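Aim 2 progress update. The chain analyzed this quarter is reproduced below.
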Amino acid sequence: MPEGNWDGTTYYGRPQLKPAPFNKWLVGGYVFIAGLSGAAQLLATLTDLRRGRAETNAVRRGRYLAMLAPTIGAVCLIADLGTPQRFYNMLRVFKTTSPMSIGSWALVGFSITSTATAALQCMADRGRLTAWFRALARVTQIPAAGLGAVLCTYTASLFSATSTPRWAAAPFSLAVRYASAAVASAAAALSVGEPRRASLGRDLDSLAIAALVTELAATMAEQQTVQRAGIDDSWSNLADTVSAALALGLFATSLLLPRQRSRLLSAAGSAIVLAGSFAMRVNVLRAGQRSAQQPNVRLSFAQRG
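Predicted structure tokens:
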């Protein structure tokens, strides 16, 4: 057959690739928790550096929220790997060209620094040597925030570095989706404890809205890139668009309807954002695994690439 004239036939319909052996619920949960924790630590650090003691409660919540990654997130990751030794083996070397190696070390570094920051915050809350513990926490939160930013996006780089067509087709858009969803979920979670009329509460709500708008735009851009690459997954595209638009609409509605937002309505709006963020991660995994099982999609993507 002349080069460039592939007619869509394959060898007995057998896929070229094996789907990535990820449990979409465990890995989706880890990716969601890692993004939420990393963004929460980042927002808490920025709030502390900008506003200081004026927003101690919000900073405290962000530091404690960051502990989800070293605890529940690590459990989800190790459970998907099957044996803890597999995670240990990833730490034997450090390769700057490997998203998995960078992500493994980032998770370990984030776990150490965020745990230290949360522990110092806890000691400060106990009322003993408060000024000293608060000062030390302001030091350890800096590397924790930097590593938290890595946690928000490295999983997108990890998926994009594979041969899975759906993930490899639009690496930049996928990274933007993951980062914006992480920021939106962290801002929404932190805003629950803030009165709507408070300055920080308004800022967190505005940040969540801006992040959700960015996620929706990145989702639509990714779909166009994927379609140009010859990957047609209408159901997944529709689910992604509806999920992003619905989360944006419902969260915005929860802010606009009441004259003074209640705690219950605030929690409901934030829960919608968190659920949409988790569902997006699971759908990305499902769509990627499905594209690897379709030989026509893989051959078409390889030919266009």
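The mean pLDDT is 83. The two ends are 19 Å apart (CA to CA). These observations will guide the mutagenesis experiments scheduled for the next reporting period.
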